[in-house]
Amino acid sequence: MKIVYIVSNVYKSSYFENLTLYMKPFFQIEYILLDNNNKKSPFEEFLKNHNIKCYRLHLTNNKLNWALNALKVFNIFKRTQPKLVHCHLLEAGLIGIITAKISGIKIRIYTRHYSDIHHVFFPKGIIYDRIINQLSTHIGSVSNIVTELLIQKENIQPKKIIYTPNFFNLKTFNKSTEEDKLSLKTKYKIPKDTYIIGVISRLTEWKGVEYIVAAFIQYVNYYDNNACLCLLNAIGDRKEEILNKLKCLEPKNYRIIEFEENISSMYEIFDVFVHVPTNKYHEAFGQVYIEALASKIPCIFTISGVANDFVENCTNAIVVDYKSSDQIYNGLKYIRENPDKLKPIIENGYNSIKKYDYLIVAEELKIIYQNLLLQSLKSNTL
């Protein structure tokens, strides 16, 4: 049985790499990559290195470009005749699901990797969601909070929703050598014994980074003037505003890093990790919750996305209120002052995310595929 995955603007992804390797023995896998790059991405190289057929289509914001890409996808479907199409991310969902419907493909899955962002910040996007929801035969929900939103705000029937959480190869975490970690500190000119507070988040309103910055400024001024705040994935519409706030600090106290490929080692140089979205819906999943806990570092969180499903204050993380720089500051102090109380929290954190290991979740997804394909085959026979 042939499955075609359609993804948009995926440059490199351990999720899709693990997914592909797990599914390859059971299905004939092909990919359609929609992206705005003019050169091969690391993910495309990965697919070709593993003999996975892939098509790369150039994507722009022009609606004519979308229509032309839909025609190309239609022609690909006509040649390859997939039994199941699974789309990830908005552009891929809109182009892929519509085209799959026109092509008569009976199993059309769209995994929802965002939650209420269109409802709150981009109302025009709700129109796209309605089209995708209507034409998909199944909608993949990456967390219980997404399921709640789909049912309560978008009137999706529960039977149409399948649980498809993100998954991780947990064995790849905590593998960095001291040389790896020292190399990263040298690369970013961070003195060896600096206390590092890590953040991996786009600089946009709903991620709450401005509250971390306010807490950190307080922390440096009143507690530890040698600490360093590392902001990774530091791009977004709030970047200039956040940089202006950080100017009151000495250059040694912060690093702005737009991209770091060795992200697993980066987690391991952090002494504490902070992630504080501003409501429970804003994250659909929030992979940094899992990655940070898998890296066995103390964490300060607000509850959003997948954290709604398992994070508890002082059990597996320090939980703070939304938009509370004072509580973030107090959390930083608590972690620094109570090292003896952190070990059980860190161990509980790691144990609580074992259910997201790819060997468990990918197997469940494989069974979903097999059941859907079997039902389709029976329906065709009848």
| Shape category | elongated
Q: Tell me, rounded to a whole number, the average pLDDT.
A: 95
- Element order: H for helix, E for strand: EHEHEHEHEHHEHEHEHEHEHEHEHEHHH
User: Got a strand count?
Assistant: 13
How much helix is in the residues? 40-55%
As laid out across the biggest beta sheet, the strand order is: 3-2-1-4-5-6-7
By CATH reckoning, the class of the largest domain would read Alpha Beta
Summary keywords:
single chain; Rossmann fold; 16 helices; alpha/beta; 6-stranded parallel β-sheet; 382 residues
Description:
- With 382 residues, this protein is an alpha/beta fold.
- The protein has two domains: 2-169 and 357-381, Rossmann fold (3-Layer(aba) Sandwich), CATH 3.40.50; 171-355, Rossmann fold, CATH 3.40.50.2000.
- 45% of the residues lie in helices and 16% in strands.
- It contains 16 helices and 13 strands.
- It has helices spanning 14-23, 42-49, 63-80, 90-102, 117-120, 125-135, 144-152, 178-187, 209-222, 239-246, 263-269, 287-294, 307-310, 325-337, 342-352, 358-381, and strands at residues 2-8, 28-35, 53-58, 84-88, 107-112, 138-141, 161-163, 196-200, 228-232, 254-257, 272-275, 299-301, 318-319.
- Helix 1 links the parallel strand 1 and strand 2 (28-35).
- The radius of gyration is 22 Å and the shape is elongated.
- The relative contact order is 0.11.
- The mean pLDDT is 95.
